[in-house]
# Entry
Amino acid sequence: MTASESATSSATDDFTPIRYADGVLYVLDQRQLPAHETWVECRDEAQVADAIAKMVVRGAPAIGCTAAYGVAIAARRLAAAGAGARAFRAGLDEAIERLRATRPTAVNLFWALAQMRDAAAVALTGGTPGDAAAALDRRALAIHAEDVAMCKRIGAAGAPLLPDDGTVLTHCNAGALATGGYGTALGVIRAARAAGKRVRVIADETRPYLQGARLTAWELVRDGFDVTIIPDSAAGFLMRRGEVQCVVVGADRVAANGDVANKIGTYQVALAAAAHGVPFYVAAPVSTIDFETPAGDAIPIEERAGTEMFAHTGADIAPAAAHARYPAFDVTPADLITAIVTDRGVVRPPYGDSLRRAVCDA
Ligand code: MRU
# Structure
């Protein structure tokens, strides 16, 4: 991977953290925000996998789009090297396995890789590896464009749920940075503002990676929103004082029964919301729904290295001899979720039936 710094791009609904041109993927390095806007260049699938594993790019839908481009890049390389159909298939499988192994919780990764595998199989039926590489380029671009379109539909579906004048709390970053563009939870907030609502945002800082403070605040400030960062531990206190009218978060995986895996800390926010009668909404595209996983307990939860807990912006914040654990996600049970806002509309409990109807009847 090589990196280059760019001037601050302007605020727009069309912002994307991933750009693809001529077989090269450029991803905005989210580890550097808000201090630096650095774009990292990925020229092979190993670099793409590294960018996902090291959280250069993060957020479930953005990981899916990135992985799709990783497969397209591998396909170009294999076709350019003159691989025959069998070697092309084997090389592609290897690239897909490498990308699959990067992060375990966000199901969009596996969804996008399955889409790419299917597209390759279709293209290779009667086509050459060169045809398949071209088809995979087009499929990756389409997955990215579809993701943005899904976010905009989520926004349109969810905007009516937000108060005409009020404060929305969000956790982690489920915005343009976490998707192909526009965002899921932040897409709902963007669409509500576009519909004329006066929405103020509270962003949980989201320790330890600080997706809320660094990323959600960055993109909302850039777009002229009123955003206030709070310590994660302040959410319940502010709800008790009536300062939060609703919660909107994203999701890494929605199980068939409506249980939702999202960034660690989401479950506590949902518990506090339930205790204070604050509506708790999850915004996610259908690519985040996993009907193969019956309930939240079966969702694989990533445990990142405890060492990520020991330093904060370069300074030691804990004694090195202490133990540390960093479960990166938690599961919010379906009964704490007021509604799930999808690109196919707003889905309400009981989710076992309503999720299937939303996806299958569309
Ligand atoms: O570890 P991250 O930053 O990839 O976790 C991201 C989240 O938990 C997001 O809320 C989720 O992926 C939804 S993004 C639209």
Summary: The chain has a mean pLDDT of 95.
